[in-house]
Amino acid sequence: MMMDSVSRLLVVILVGVSYVVQTMALNCVYSNRRCSCDPSVTFVTCNDLDQIPPLNTGGNVTEVTSLTFQGGNITSITRSSLPLGLTQITIIGNPLTNISDDALDATAATLQYVYIEGAEFSNLPKALKKVTNLTQLSIVDTAIQDWDIATLKKLGATV
């Protein structure tokens, strides 16, 4: 009798955990098993991706404030690949060669922090010129050879 009660309890717990995990996956802005969202969907972390997955549609896309791409083979960031209204983006250990000029348009007024490490682009991304509230910019272990003066002047007003 005791064993039946324990078995039922375990089934209930497993069903509950399964529901929570599925709900969290459905609410994440990227439907990729290598991306995880905190329960409030405010922080998103993606590990070892070959490219940025398509954004899920829905209201919670605008709730993301912090996005991290750690490790992998992401080479490009294009328009519509990032959630609206980000305040922080961190890209570490991806051979990023291109950030399109319009990649940050949806976050231009909200983005405050950009950290890029180990990228392979040689020009300062012009997309940064459109960011109006950036207070911290770190580009580490990236051999930038063309420091666009117009972009630096624009960034200098807030960084």
From TrEMBL:
It comes from the Eukaryota. This is Uncharacterized protein. InterPro entries: LRR_dom_sf (IPR032675). Keywords: Signal. Gene3D superfamilies: Ribonuclease Inhibitor. Residues 1-25 form the signal peptide.
